[in-house]
Amino acid sequence: MKLLFSFTALLLSMLIFNGCAQKKPYRYPNYDIIKPEITCTPKRENIQELLLSYLGKPYVWAEEGPDAFDCSGLTYNIYGQMGIKIPRIASEQAKMGKRVAFKDLYYGDLIFFGSTNRRSRRINHVGIYLGDGWFAHASSKDRKVTVSHFDKEPRYVKRIKLCRRYLSEDEREKYMTCHAPLKKMKITTNRYTTPWKAGMKLPKRAVPR
Q: What is the span of the domain harbouring residue 161?
């Protein structure tokens, strides 16, 4: 009798646990933040490999991969896979790291953009510098992860607000200093929520109302 009771209690607890762990179906926009698994070490070679694997993948607002990204979701994923924890949204990512001048940008540095109004400090976009005026980003205009050049698209130069570096040039040091209070970030995993996946319908609007 005692053994039967113990077995019943165990079965009940498993059902309750599985019920709690049930995935939320995908719904646009999905604001659940999925923490990326650490797959590699902090190296620029790994930034390059991850970027190459993501080029051409669709832009979907609030997604951080692996099948779709928004601008800060891309940077959050790439640095997160290298074990460098940064905030999820661009305006918060801009509060961390070492500030560098545009002329001193190095491969892997982040460039933060806003409006062309120089007085405005609001940040609404982020890209990864690649060198020689090239940068990678998840573009809401192109609706995909792509590469742009400042000379070919000079409007981006006018939109630059600041640049940050998380990884030193010799890759021996991480710059994770926080320059302003960060908002609390609740993260989850694929176990509890469903990200946008290849084969799903793309939203009609790149940016939801």
A: 27-188
**Distance between CA atoms of residues 102 and 89, nearest Å:** 21
What total number of domains does the chain contain?
1
**Active-site residue (options: 20, 40, 125, 149):** 125
Q: Is the per-residue pLDDT at 124 higher than 50?
A: yes
Q: Is residue 41 part of a domain?
A: yes
Least confident of 12-21, 68-77, 128-137: 12-21
Look at residue 153 and tell me if it is in a domain: yes
- pLDDT score recorded for residue 70: 98
The set of residues, in sequence order, having a beta carbon less than 8 Å from that of 201 and lying 6+ positions away, is none
CATH number assigned to the domain comprising residue 68: 3.90.1720.10
pLDDT band at residue 21, thresholds of 50, 70 and 90? low
Distances (CA, A) of 19 to 14, 23, 187, 192: 8, 9, 20, 11
Q: Clarify whether 179 is annotated catalytic.
A: no
Of the listed 137, 149, 178, 179, which one is catalytic? 137
- Judge contact between 77 and 88, C-beta under 8 A: no
